[in-house]
Amino acid sequence: MKNNFYGKSFLTLLDFSKEEISDLLHVSAKLKAKKKANVECRPLEGKNVVLLFEKDSTRTRCAFQVGANDLGMNVTYLGPTGSQMGKKESIKDTARVLGRMFDGIEYRGYKQETVDILGQFSGVPVWNGLTDMYHPTQILADFMTIIEKFGHLEGINFSYFGDARNNMGNSLMIGCAKMGMHFTACAPKDLWPNKELIEKCQVLAKESGGTIRFTEDVTEGSKDQDVIYTDVWVSMGEPDEVWIERIEQLMPYQVNKTLMSNASENAIFMHCLPAFHNTETKIGKELFKKFGVDALEVTEEVFESVQSVVFDEAENRLHTIKAVMYLTLREPK
Questions:
Q1: Is 271 a residue of the active site?
Q2: Which are the contacts of 99, defined by CB distance < 8 A and separation ≥ 6?
Q3: DSSP code of 331?
Q4: Beta-carbon contacts of residue 81 (< 8 Å; ≥ 6 apart)
Q5: Catalytic annotation on 182?
Q6: Which residue of the set 59, 61, 108, 182 is catalytic?
Q7: Which of 135, 165, 277, 319 is labelled catalytic?
Q8: Measuring CA to CA, which residue among 164, 221, 224 is closest to residue 198?
Q9: CA 142 to CA 169: how far, in whole Å?
């Protein structure tokens, strides 16, 4: 495989072709197989990367850190209070400083504009670990998991339930459109992605043989689907009024046993995590105390069922992120 990724940033799936995404997934599978077989693979020995986090995370941080270490790199972590970016120093200046010291930069935070500026001015590959607009590394892990379960992506019937205008709704729609999948967003109409992005994805889907559709009908949205996907309904830190409104609005879109039984016989359940599926967390307990609900976007019954592949997805964050770093930092021979 020819490396077309060297020196490039990974900011959104819109920047990559169907063939390039397939190549990323192919390399991910090879790296996973080597790790499972305990075959050392350290082609980036001595390189240095920085993880720039404005938003805390479990999976993203661990996947980048373990992946970089596996590939032989040194890692510096800068948390929400670990740098002066945007406070005493502009994003543009931060990019130029970090680009002089590191071979690659990971960013996880809020504005897509921030990661775009880092990519424009750092002079090194920048990887989007999450913004309010996109979450491209998560989609690679999701697609790797689907391939492991079904053997292919083309023709897969994929339904996303909940807030379809968030970073996951946007990125899953883009990914499905690129890869020839049949994407359905099942959500209240005011929570659909913006019109411009929908139109762009409809063009991509037409080129790949996929389809894009939207519905507010849960029965229609889940009927005979291969993949049922959901995500959290409300960002942490939002006031109670937002939680109340969103719970009332989205409870009909909760992924439960009835919804799953309407999907295809071999359907799988997916979630990027963390999920509010019981009261075993501090926030889960608070939600039950305040609103009387013991689960939000997915029930415990579905989350813990044999159809659930959420921890396969979580593991595959590591292998797909390793592939992104490997391909963007490995010099062509």
A1: no
A2: 105, 121, 122, 123, 124
A3: P
A4: none
A5: no
A6: 108
A7: 135
A8: 164
A9: 13
- Does the pTM surpass 0.85? The reply is yes
> Annotated catalytic, 307?
no
317 is catalytic: yes
What is the DSSP annotation of 245-298?
HHHHHHGGG-B-HHHHHHS-TT-EEEE-S----SS-SHHHHHHHHHH--S-SSB
Catalytic annotation present for 312: no
- Dump pLDDT digits (tens) for 272-314: 999 999 999 998 998 899 899 999 999 999 999 999 999 999 9
The question of whether 138 is a catalytic residue gets the answer yes
Question: Model confidence over 265-282: pLDDT tens digits?
Answer: 999 999 999 999 999 999
Q: Which one from 138, 246, 254, 277 is the annotated catalytic residue?
A: 138
- Cα torsion 302, 304, 310, 312 to 10°: value is -140
- Which position among 226, 271, 272, 319 bears the catalytic label? 272
